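User: Hey, my collaborator sent me this sequence without any context and asked if I could get a structure. I don't really work with proteins. Can you help?
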Amino acid sequence: MLLQSTTPHSPFHHHHRRHVSLSSPLPYSLSFPSGFRNKNPTIVRCSISQVHSYGTVDYERTKWTKWFRICKSISLMNDPTISAASLLNEYEKAGKRFTKWELHRIIKQLRRIRRFKRALEVYEWMNNRAEMFGITTSDTAIQLDLIAKVCGTLDAEDCFLKLPDTSKDQRTYAALLNAYVRAKMRAKAESIYAQMMIKGYHLNPPQVNVMMTLYMNLEEYDKVDLLVSEMRQKNVSLDTYSYNIWLSSCGAQGSIEKVEQVFEQMEQDSTVNPNWITFGAMASLYIRVGQFEKAEECIKKLESRITGQDRIPYHHVISLYGSVGKREEVYRVWNVFKSMFPKIPMMAYHAVISSLIRLGDIDGAEQLYSEWLSVRPTNNPRIVNLLMTYYTRNGLLVKAEALLDQMVESGGKPNSGTWEILAEGHIREEKVSEALSCLKEAVSVRGSQNWKPRLVNVSSILSICEQNDDLQSKDVLMGLLSQVGCFEDEAYKSYVPLTDGVATVPDEDEDSYGEEILLNQLQGSFQ
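Assistant: No problem. I've predicted the 3D structure and written it out in structure-token form, which is a compact way to encode the shape of the chain:
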């Protein structure tokens, strides 16, 4: 059954690496008692392939229990110099006691909302009371995962190597494997995966899914097929996520026929059920090859599999309907979404505004942007960037500049992408000096360490400089590219070869709006 509306339709990569010592009291030391509770532990399921937890609790409608109130207080702590332990200490001094279950719920929720540093601080507080809470290898594995996210993969590796042998089991190995895969450290991931096999750890789908995702990220799709074959040879059943990764791999190779063959095998496998991610991935693949009727069939099947209070599927349904040109469906699902959830997150507005812009409904997009401003105290650059991109690409540079000014005046902070979008508008009007000024602003934005200008914009500036014999502007551009490390990035440098000191850049296609759903989720789903 399709979603029905009850309302009328209406138009850390750069970080200072910190070496974490297991014996160090600050700030992320791990405490590992000699004995552990579980003698036959199962795998820690923090796999990259586990994208979502279905039936997610809608915390807005849940009774505010003690653990959730404390979790909210921790999540709202803004001073990075004050640890979550200080708040827990205050509660403890007031005579309040915590059960391990409550602390686990706090940690789980902090991880869900990506407050990884705070979650690690809660574990540090528990480690100082290890005898009270009985730290297990499962706890250790989760801490390794958090250390990798907060301090870096190498720090997590250091901690793992310092663990006593009794603490190194399938859970902790799996956590380190996850960290390596997330960092795309292929050699280390393959090495620890091989060690797990040598130790005789039971081969299971989550473990293989992590390696399948690594090869997906590295675009080595033949390795995905080999892992599927290995699972079948060893009589290891594929789970839903295994099939979803396999489907995505086939789609990335451009083989719709193979995608449909894999899906047929999935339907015949009585041990799994295709979920909304399955049909979302297939819809995206059909959109990519222009088979919109089949894509729409998959979107409707996706809708029928939305359960519980998980918001994420709605975002994808809205985006997919936008990609197949179904404006009415975008509004229908949006109205259903608004009727179900009293608070609408930023990503929902992002999905619907992006879809309406693709559909050419700029009036509707602007109306929803105004609605967004009415419920949020400040602008989020991700929302603003959508409209600015439309304006600059349609000759409305003045309107884009006015929108940027409005965001800044209301307390919003432009990100590097915001400034590059504005630069693109100036490039279209061949105002190189203004474009370079915007790129300088992009470089100066806090947190811009991973930003690099789009190749198509670099190419356009160089072309204008060549036409006007503007060597000074070209030198400024080369300096900016060097400043952000473009010439140290092999992948980037391969597209910007230097010939006699002059950069020559091939044309780059425009950004694709129809991003493939599953791979994007898998790339960022360590929660």
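In plain terms: The chain has a mean pLDDT of 82. You can pass these tokens on to your collaborator as they are.
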